[in-house]
Amino acid sequence: MNMTERKPRNRGDKKRGRFGGNKSRRRGKPSRTRDDQFRPNQKPRPREQVEPMEALEMEGIFGSLIPEIQYALKKEGYATPTPVQAQAISPQVDGRDLFGSAQTGTGKTAAFTIPLLQDLAAEKINPEGRHPRALILAPTRELAAQIGD
Asked: What is the pTM assigned to this prediction?
């Protein structure tokens, strides 16, 4: 057998390769699963509850954005933000991190994209070189295509 050829391993072989198998590198102990990380007696932390906003407050959220973004939002048909957008945009514009969860179709993509566009518009572009200005990770191709549009 040449050095470039490899003999395929059978399922019965002890060693499964660098990442395969169900054993961790530590002396045959099984690898930890996600369920092992949570203790059954541990109580979940309470989530911060946000009070619903009034209509004037919700419209003020879009009003606090730069004029170019306001124009683009009006052109796309946004009149008032959805509840998830109303709760998410202001903290992000203030520079705070955010974790949000909502059903499909509630405007989550716009909730993180609008503040990102506001930050990118305020940032000075370096004419010397091209560097990434934002990194957006999406779990599916469909969502990546939606974000790209």
From this structure: 0.54
